[in-house]
Amino acid sequence: MSPQRNHPELSVVVPVFNEGENIEALIARLVPVLEATVATFEILFVDDGSRDDTFARIRRVISQDSRIRAITFSRNFGKEIALAAGLDHAHGKAVVLIDADLQHPPETITAFVAKWREGYDMVYGQRVDRSADTPLRRWFTRAFYDLFAKFGETPLPPGAGDYRLMDRKVVDVLRRLGERARFSKGLYAWVGFKSIGVPFEVAERAYGTSKWDYRQLTRFAFDGLSSFSTLPLKLATYIGLGISIFAFTYAITMAVRTLFLGADVPGFPSLIVSVMFFSGIQLMFLGVIGEYVGRIFAEVKRRPLYIVAEEIGSRHAGDVGRAETVRGEAPPPPTGDDRPRVSAVP
Ligand code: UDP
Ligand code: MG
């Protein structure tokens, strides 16, 4: 196998979850763009535990085109993790991340590559408008990014999403960050490097519906805020302090009042109200702390980020890829080629 095949100029990573109908359409649009833009490329599908015919269709396109490869997870791990796995398995000198539903117009890759050749290490797509989303989702997105801009420790470029190109050195840095709660938009901004945005129009989804529901989005938002900000924890301190100061002055006032005016009728209602108020505050912040502790727990367990059930495509035809080892631990037990293998972000 030629070295060119092992290290193509560009890898295109496509996370897919139940995207059966989009596979052929995506390939039909993507391949001509890539052929016109770069000398060598690979398309790497990361099948995030699809339950429809996605993997069968990927197999079919791979049998017709040796530049396409795929890995499939043992179950659904979520898009963020699928992207991390894509970065782990991509061999290109630069890597493009793109959605499978054609919401990210493949033609923009030409502009990405042009900027990369000018010397930018990270070229991110900037959505011109979000009219493809529902108004409610737009509102949540907006609120989240406003919050993040105010309190997050890393500024995010406006309108930047996952659609982007990254140079090999950025990819290698990202792969070394082993966070479990993946908020990759934050990580991309956090690693820095010479970056630039390229505007693009978000298209309508080609087939199917969005794979995120509001519960997942909320979780994602909290992951983002908690991994890039300690504000929720600080809030507990400040509110606690404020309430203590208030309680202290109130106590003094009461003492003075009692000295001069004598005790009035025992204040049963105010007692109950204050007890409930303070228990509420305490429970709330226990919850906040619990969220952080839960995330710390997830990190210290050091489970692999994902489990690859199968890998198909030309890479297995005798090339010497990077050995897949679980991060910082002993090499994996020898596995037959078709047995599930475990890998993690190193
Ligand atoms: N996706 C994934 N795993 C998931 C959910 C989504 O790999 O658990 C993929 C999906 O197949 C698509 C991309 O992530 O290629 C974007 O998903 P979607 O279009 O549902 O998100 P949206 O465009 O609504 O943000
Ligand atoms: Mg989409």
- Poorly predicted regions are 1-5, 316-346
For the biggest sheet, the summary is:
9 strands, mixed
Q: What's the number of helices?
A: 11
Helix content: 40-55%
Q: Give a count of the beta strands, DSSP E runs of length 2 or more.
A: 9
Strand order of the largest sheet: 7-5-6-4-1-2-3-8-9
Report strand %. 15-25%
- Summing up helix and strand content along with how strands pair, one would put the structural category as alpha/beta
Order of helices and strands: HEHEHEHEHEHEHHEHHHEE
Hetero compounds: uridine-5'-diphosphate, magnesium ion
Radius of gyration: 25 Å
The span between the termini is 26 Å
Inertia-based shape: elongated
Mean pLDDT: 78
List keywords for this structure.
alpha/beta; binds magnesium ion; 346 residues; nine-stranded mixed β-sheet; binds uridine-5'-diphosphate; 48% helix; disordered C terminus
Tell me about this structure.
With 346 residues, the chain is of the alpha/beta class. It has helices spanning 3-6, 23-37, 54-64, 79-89, 108-118, 135-151, 168-176, 184-191, 214-228, 231-261, 268-301, and strands at residues 10-16, 41-47, 68-73, 94-97, 122-127, 160-167, 195-200, 306-313, 341-343. The protein has a nine-stranded mixed β-sheet, with helices on both faces. Helix 6 (135-151) packs parallel to helix 9 (214-228) and helix 10 packs antiparallel against helix 11 (268-301). The site of uridine-5'-diphosphate has 17 residues, from strand 1 and helix 4. Magnesium ion (MG) binds next to loops.
